[in-house]
Amino acid sequence: MTPEHIINIVTDSFDGVVPKASWGETSLFYNPGNALPNGVYFCTIKEKNGDNDKSSDLDRDGVFRLSIGIGKAAYTSILGKPPARPSKGGIVDTGHDFTACDELMPHPIYGWMSWVQILNPSESSFKEIMPLIAVAHQEAVAKFTKRIR
Q: What is the rounded average pLDDT for all residues in the chain?
């Protein structure tokens, strides 16, 4: 799987998805008709380290991170209670190897907000997490609806 392939699958599978790329990251927003300046993001693909985000070692050749904001209920059912918020500049304390590929785990920085990550998902892993992307999309639709009221 490539970042472009994942972006195409998500934008083709769910209504109202608008990709926006900047600084080595593509965020997928729910924003039908561009009704809001950005909409509500629910999924990101990051292809390089950031100044405050090196925990997944994304500067390795060909490594990218798919992140999904799945909400607390889905997160808890899969990974248990979300971790505590890390200190500024820190990462969540879960014992995971955030550099491991093709393994669903808490997001190293936003796990406390019920975000998960998977580095370089295989096709079979991606198929397994598509329901989580659907959950994240549904959550974004609900947040979007509240914002435009």
A: 96
> Each residue of 30-82: pLDDT tens digit?
999 999 998 999 999 999 998 888 999 999 999 999 999 999 999 999 999 99
Count of beta carbons in the 10 Å neighbourhood of residue 138? 16
Q: Which domains does the chain have, with CATH numbers?
A: 3-148 (3.90.1150.30)
What is the Cα–Cα distance from 108 to 58, expressed in whole angstroms? 12
Record the pTM.
0.95
Work out the number of other CB atoms within 10 angstroms of the CB of residue 83: 18
Sign of CA dihedral 123, 127, 129, 132: positive
Q: Are 96 and 107 in contact (CB under 8 A)?
A: no
Q: What is the 3-state secondary structure (H, E, C) of the chain?
A: CCHHHHHHHHHHHCCCEEEEEECCEEEEEECHHHCCCCCEEEEEEECCCECCECCCCCCCCCCCEEEEECHHHHHHHHHCCCCCCCCCCCCCCCCCCCCCECCCEECCCCHHHCEEEEECCCHHHHHHHHHHHHHHHHHHHHHHHHHHC
